[in-house]
Amino acid sequence: MLLNAAKLIGAGLATISIAGTGVGIGIIFSALISAYSRTPEHQKQLFTYAILGFALSEAIALFGLMLSFLILFS
C-alpha cells in the first residue's frame, strides 16, 4: 500500500515538467513575435531558432512523461 502511494506521488511530481514546458513554449513564441516586429528581414533565421527551442522544450516534457510512466509501471 505504501509503495503504491509513493509511486503515485513520484509520478505526479514527474509530470510537473509538463507545466514548465508549457510556460517555456509560450515564452519562446512570444519572443519570436517580438523579434519579428523588430527585425522583419530576419524572419527565416528567427523561425529556425524558435523551432529549435520548441523542440528542446518539448523534449523535456517527453522525458518527464517517460519518467512518470517508468515510475508507475515498474
From TrEMBL:
Transmembrane spans: 12-34, 46-73
A Pfam family it matches: ATP-synt_C
Keywords, in A-Z order: CF(0), Hydrogen ion transport, Hydrolase, Ion transport, Lipid-binding, Membrane, Mitochondrion, Transmembrane, Transmembrane helix, Transport
GO BP annotations, alphabetical order: proton motive force-driven ATP synthesis
Keyword field contains Transmembrane: yes
Subcellular location: Membrane; Mitochondrion membrane
Organism superkingdom: Eukaryota
Record GO cellular component, one term: proton-transporting ATP synthase complex
Domain V-ATPase proteolipid subunit C-like intervals: 9-71
Gene3D superfamilies per UniProt: F1F0 ATP synthase subunit C
InterPro entries (UniProt xref): ATP_synth_F0_csu (IPR000454), ATP_synth_F0_csu_sf (IPR038662), ATPase_proteolipid_c-like_dom (IPR002379), F/V-ATP_Csub_sf (IPR035921)
Molecular functions (GO terms): hydrolase activity; lipid binding; proton transmembrane transporter activity
Membrane topology: Multi-pass membrane protein
Subunit structure: F-type ATPases have 2 components, CF(1) - the catalytic core - and CF(0) - the membrane proton channel. CF(1) has five subunits: alpha(3), beta(3), gamma(1), delta(1), epsilon(1). CF(0) has three main subunits: a, b and c.
Family: Belongs to the ATPase C chain family.
Full protein name: ATP synthase subunit 9, mitochondrial
The encoding gene: atp9
